[in-house]
Amino acid sequence: MGLRVERAGPLALLQDAGRFGVRRLGVTQGGPADLHGWAWANRLAGNVWGTPVLEVTFGGLALVAERDLSIAVAGADLAATLDGEPLALWRPVSIKEGQTLAFGTPRNGLRAYLALAGGFRAEPVLGSVSCVVREGLGGFDGHGGKLAAGDRLAVSGEAGERVAREAVSVPEPPDYTAPATLALLPGAQVADFTGASLYAAFNSRWRVDDRADRMGVRLTGPRLNCRIGSLISEGIGLGAVQVPPDGQPIALLNDRQTIGGYPRLGALTPLAASRLAQCLPGQEARLVATSSERALCDYRLFRRSLER
């Protein structure tokens, strides 16, 4: 074992890169809601892509180290402390057996990512340890269970030995409190929205609604009207922006349903979906149309930045 849960907080879930190749079974993707923060936590801890990380939403989590560990926390600033002292974010940190790592309340963003050098250890379910509570899959118990006080989190056998010694060029931590600019790839039904609605979609200030979770985020603003009332249900990808009859778009995230029948404006790029996942209710967001070439270029630059 490596960490003991002293206080569980509202939501802390184990997430690797996600569960792929199973949507034909009606099983969703899972994985980190903020791919950017998750990837950088692993990089700073010296881990390879896909190593399981603990996604901490809203804070409230307290963990006691049962062995010496090297960790990194990236993503949101949830006022993390080590034995009551502020924890350095976006850099490798060594913690000693018996020390307490605690997360407070959101100061910048919503989701923090705790990576251990060597990684957490859990039994894969359908090829992934990603925890999807609704489907009862993955996580430390294999059944999608939330953490509870007294749980002990297993870590890799080499977790206390591996330390990231390589110099890493760390990006400036994002300002998640700033208005979010969300790149969107127009979809197959975009031409079925009225001209006024398309103008409003890309020229209005949207607000993140409090109806938001790992399944999706509702945006509130001008009513969007589509000439299509409903569709035969079709596959739903990460970031799909559905518009139900009330005209308020919903951006679907990692724990989304696998099919849906509402018309879609398009889909947020993976990095845009990550940015949205860090928005608190009431935050402002804008949709910006982009091309698949631009989105692919941005994603390649992101992956390259992790390799430097």
UniProtKB/TrEMBL annotation:
SMART domains noted in UniProt: AHS2
GO molecular function, one term: hydrolase activity
Claim: Nucleotide-binding is one of the keywords in the record: yes
Pfam families, per the entry: CT_A_B
Gene3D superfamilies (alphabetical): Cyclophilin-like (2.40.100.10)
Domain Carboxyltransferase: residue ranges: 24-306
Top-level taxonomic group: Bacteria
Keywords, sorted A to Z: ATP-binding, Hydrolase, Lyase, Nucleotide-binding
Protein name: 5-oxoprolinase/urea amidolyase family protein
Organism: Halomonas icarae
